[in-house]
Every structure is written in C-alpha cells, then in structure tokens.
Design a protein that fits this description.
mainly alpha
Length: 97
Amino acid sequence: MEYIKHKVKEFSIEFAKSKQNIIKNRTKSKQNIIKNRKQNHIEKEIDKIEMTHYEKLDYDRLKMLEPELNEICESKTKGFQIMSEAKLIENGDKNPK
C-alpha cells in the first residue's frame, strides 16, 4: 500500500513539473513575440522618421523611441546572459568569470 502511495506521489510531482514547464514555455514564447513586435514597430517608426525629408523630421518622436529601443536591446542582452549562465549551471560547468 505504501509503495502505491509513493508511486502516485512521484507521478503527481512529475506531472506538475511538466505542466508547469509547458505553461512557463508558453508564457515566455508569448512574451518574446510581444517584445519582438514592439521592437519591430519601434524600429519601423525610427526608420520612417529618419527617411522623411530633413525639414520634416520629428526629433521629439525620435528621441522618445530610441530609449525604448535601447531598453528592449538591454533586456534581450540580459536574457541571453541569464540563459547562458543557466546552461553552464545545468551542465555542471563553472562560469569563467
């Protein structure tokens, strides 16, 4: 009887972990899609502003969009750093820092 309880508990834990991973991956995927769309939109806005005639440039709009784009790029960079460190930890390797 104890063996069955133990096996049910193990199965429940593994099932919960796998379900949580699926939810986590879907959430990350959706967040990345949203970030990419926002970044593409901002880049298009900047390109459009820069391509307009010199006299018609909207410097205020350009100055407002550039920090947003920089923030997205910094966020992506931090994300790549975290993923790299996580892979090192998972593989048992030491961080070269």
